[in-house]
Automatic annotation (TrEMBL):
Record key words, sorted: TPR repeat
One example GO MF annotation: mannosyltransferase activity
Gene3D superfamilies registered for this protein in UniProt: Tetratricopeptide repeat domain
Protein name as annotated: Uncharacterized protein
Pfam families assigned to the protein according to its UniProt record, in alphabetical order: TPR_11, TPR_16
Length: 275
């Protein structure tokens, strides 16, 4: 497998923002909300919550730099504003603003001082470490996140991917099994586990067992419903074939010929960066 890339690493940012304790003053569309908060600032210009909510509005509008400016303003008035600390750090990491990574890490460490077992803080520190190329630190932070929350989807997958890319694929297997125990339809997790079974463990029976459990058919249906590209939907239903043909030189019924395997692998490689 190739180097770690943004297309492989799984971000939890959208789910984190949706599930986080974001304080809203209105449920209006974002433009109307923006106008409400801007009027509120006229009467209460020192209120960190108003700046924070404006930051959230601009974030939802896709205006990352403006969002960050308002989150920073919230922190000027309340340096301990938990949501502003968390979301500004996430925004810095997600936006790839390299010169602010130290700031993001400092804000996360401040949150960690408040709550020593905050899995979201651990995860985002791991993501920052990945961006800095500090694999050892990233691994340590992801492990802490998983220790706190055993079903943490993104932390489990990113930890497994990190271990696999660090030439320690066997260490990735328990985390992939843990991931699939809680999230049986995790597509990239299934693919990575199948790859390890075939190319590193040479365990075709284990790879085929994944297929017998019905993951691929179920995943195929779900992919077709959530992916816009028909090609990737086809890839999902095809993935069983690379599994079954990995040792096509062995005389087992149902194996694809070597030529067919090469065709499938070539097609899949063009459809998804992971391959």
């Amino acid at each position: 497998m190739g180097d770690l890339s943004a297309s492989c690493i799984e971000s939890d940012a959208v789910k984190r923002r949706a599930s986080g304790p974001i304080r809203r003053l209105t449920s209006s569309p974002t433009r109307e909300a923006q106008e409400v908060y801007e009027r509120a600032l006229f009467y209460d210009s020192n209120n960190p919550d108003i700046y924070y909510n404006l930051g959230v509005v601009f974030l939802e509008q896709g205006k990352a730099l403006q969002a960050l400016a308002y989150l920073d303003k919230a922190l000027e008035f309340d340096p301990d504003h938990t949501q502003a600390l968390m979301n500004s750090a996430i925004l810095i990491q997600e936006s790839g603003i390299a010169h602010l990574r130290t700031t993001a890490a400092a804000r996360l460490m401040k949150l960690l001082a408040k709550d020593e077992r905050n899995e979201r803080v651990f995860f985002n520190l791991g993501m920052l470490a990945m961006d800095d190329g500090d694999v050892a630190s990233a691994e340590a932070w992801f492990r802490k996140a998983v220790d706190v929350r055993e079903d943490f989807r993104s932390a489990l997958f990113n930890l497994a991917l990190l271990l696999s890319e660090a030439r320690r694929p066997l260490e990735a297997v328990p985390f992939l099994n843990q991931l699939l125990k809680h999230h049986g339809d995790h597509i990239k997790g299934l693919i990575l586990l199948g790859d390890i079974y075939i190319n590193h463990m040479k365990d075709l029976d284990a790879a085929e067992k994944l297929g017998r459990h019905g993951f691929w058919d179920e995943t195929g249906r779900r992919l077709l419903s959530i992916e816009t590209g028909a090609a990737w939907g086809n890839t999902a239903t095809m993935f069983r074939r690379p599994v079954l043909c990995a040792a096509s030189d062995e005389a087992r019924p149902g194996r694809l010929r070597v030529e067919e395997c090469a065709e499938w692998a070539s097609l899949i490689k063009t459809q998804k960066p992971y391959f």
